[in-house]
Structure formats: C-alpha cells, structure tokens
Specification:
Hypothetical protein af1432; 8 helices; about 180 residues; mainly alpha; two-stranded antiparallel ribbon; about 0% strand
Length: about 180
Amino acid sequence: MGYITTYTGKHFDPMEPNMDVLDVRDIAHALSLTCRGNGHVKHFFSVGQHCVACAKEAEARGYSKRVILGCLLHDASEAYMSDVPRPFKDVLQEYQLLEDKLIDMIYVRFLGSKLTEEEWQLVKKVDDDLLYFDMIELLGVAQEGTAPKIQIELDYEVHPFENVETEYIDLYEKWKIK
C-alpha cells in the first residue's frame, strides 16, 4: 500500500502527492490531534492550536489574507507526513525535499499560488515569535534576548481536539481565497 487513508477517507500518497486529495478537514483534524514538539512538552498542546494562534497573530498584525492563511497552513504538511525533529530533519534531505514540495502544493491548493518570499518571511516571523513563548511555556526553557512583541494573548490551556479542529476550519472559512 503506497498511501495513507485520511480522516475523510481519501487515499494520499506522500511520495506522489495529488493536490486534489488535499482537504482542509483532514488537515484540521490531524493537526488538532498532533502534539507540538514531538510530544516532548509539559502538557499536550496541539500543532493545530499553534497554527490557530499563528493565524490570529497574523490577523492582529494586520497582515494580508494570504499571510493569515499561510500562518494557519504553515504546518499542514505534518497532517500528511508527520513531523521530524529539526536536528534530524536537517540530515534527511529527501524528506526535506518532499516536505517542501508538499507545502508548496498546499499553498497552491488553498491560496491559489505559493507564498512569495516576502509573505513566507512574515509567516516565519510569526511562527518564530510564538515559538519563543512556546519554548518557555511548554518546555520551561528560558530564551535569550528580548521577548518578541505579540498582539494576541497566548492560550496554553489544553482544549478538546474537536474544539481546535472546529476553530481551525472556521478560521480557514473566514479567510479563504475565493
């Protein structure tokens, strides 16, 4: 079997991804059940909840619809490929190529085109800014430097996956490119 079966019952081949199989419901469901930090955190905090926070931060900063959606979807490849911790990923060139191909495909599917370099840098800045606080709250690791200024109040409470999934889909519907 060269595919995974998604939450909505689609067959997805991560080695030969098909854009038509990508479904925001599958992404929202899988990410709401996927723990941030490969599970090495003080308490469960889903990748979906992180992505929702990133989208809300992008919205609060007044970024474009594309950047807000880019933030919501920036970890969407993990719904299909899982995640590999960064130090390990750095030596897995084939994995990195497949992940880059998939995230570009996700952006084309849901935004109409890949993010521009400028848009990607804004997405990465939001992600990195929230990571600063995630490291403190979820791992108890003090961070160097000045804390980034963020616009939203971060919520690290454990939320039922169904609520995170619904909020993810609601944000997608609010900001989707028509």
